[in-house]
Give the backbone structure.
Amino acid sequence: MQLIPAQAFELTQLEAFFGDSLPRWEQEQQKLYEEGYVLETNDGWRAFFCLEQDEQALRVHSMYVKPPANGTVILACMELASMEARRREASHLRLISHHKTLDQLISLYGFEAKQGWWEKTL
């Protein structure tokens, strides 16, 4: 399993991976391309997410998990995002959950609920 910067790939490869599943791709393609990472496993590309600098923290956004999504892939994304945030010497990792079903998983991984987002101290 490895985390690869999106810029290592051609835009057309990323477009094919998303299909119509990441609407923000069309509106914010350049930003997502610059901030994005692809999670590659033995089964090929499994997920994509962006890490945006927000003061001393990094914010995870635009996460897409290729179906079938499962907790293992999501936890791998969180772990790799945490590792990258530490490498960049960020103090916190932040994310917003749009799926109530993920909130328990996020909490178990060490994130604390804040006002409208989740935050993990690194």
